[in-house]
Design goal:
The chain is about 45% helix and about 20% strand. It is an alpha+beta fold and about 230 residues long.
Length: about 230
Amino acid sequence: MGLVRFTRRAVDWRLRLGVWERVWDSVRHVALGPHDTAMVDGFTTTTVARTLIDLASVVEEEQLEVALEHALRRGLVTVDSLRCACERAATRRGRAVLRDLLDERDPSYRPTESAFETRLRRVLKQYGLPMPRNQVRVVVEGGRVRRLDLAWPALRVCIEADGDWHRSKEQLAADHARRNEIVRAGWRPLVVTWRHLVTEPAAIADEIRGTLEQAIREQSAAREVCTATPRGQ
C-alpha cells in the first residue's frame, strides 16, 4: 500500500472484517469495521490509516513516526482522516502514541521529505529545542524559489540535511551555490550530516541551540538600536 518498509519481519494481515493478526510470534484476532479494509491488487487488506494504528502497538515510536511521515508525504492519509480512524479504534493498544504524534501536527503542517529529516526533528524534540517548520519556501536573488528542509522563519535560521551520499563535483558546486544564495537572502543555514546525526545528536542539538540563541540576541540588539535612534536620523 505504499508504506515504508521495516527491517524486522512484517506484520501479516489476513481475512476480512475479523482479521487474523500475526505479530511476529503471536497471533491475535481483531475485529475490523468496513472503514478499516481496502482492496489492493485483488487482496483484502487493512487501510493505510488502520495499518498505522496497528503499527503503533508493535513498533517503536520512532519507526511509527517515520511511517506516519511517509504516508503523509505520499498523500496516503491526512491528519484529519487519521484522527477519525483513531476514534473508531478507541480501544486499540498503541492508539495514544499515534494520537500524540498527530497532536504535534497542525492543519498547516508539511511532512518531512525523508526519514533523515524525521529523525532530525525527533532529536530537536528530545533535547527541548523549538520545533521548526518543514519545507519552507524562500525567494532568493533572481526571483528563484529555494526550499529549506527545516527552518525557523522568524529567526532566519535553517537546517540543510546532508545525506552523505557520493556526489559529483558538479553537484557539490550546485549545492554550494544554492547555500550561498540562501545566505545572501538573509538566512543562516546549518548543515547536518546523517553520520553526525547518528553518532553525535547531543552535539548537533548544542550547535543548533547556540545558533538560535545568537539569532535571538542579534534581533534583540537590532530592536534596541531602532528604539534608541530618534526619528529623522
